Predict the structure.
Amino acid sequence: MTNDFCQLQITCPTREEALTLAKKLVKKHLAACSQVTGPITSLCYWEGEFKEGEEWLVLAKTRLCIFDEVTELILSLHSYKVPQIIALPLVASSPDYLHWLEEQIQ
């Protein structure tokens, strides 16, 4: 049963954008819950230049089978040209939490 669930990691440039995205995912039942944490410091190369900046991290519990639909929603709301949308598989959880996840997500 756990193989279908995952946790998404999505970075956003502002707390407001992260909260908007997190709320939309839950209200549309595309995620059972979302947490917003930050600020975090991100370091990367973008378009050949080294970048260091503040971001906010959204952690959303969803199902792998709807990843494409979830990604489509994220892309429609996100301000980045190439946002981070990473799915990490849920490998273990309590049965009660798994049942709750299943009830919350479409």
Notes: Helices lie at 15-27, 67-77, 95-104.
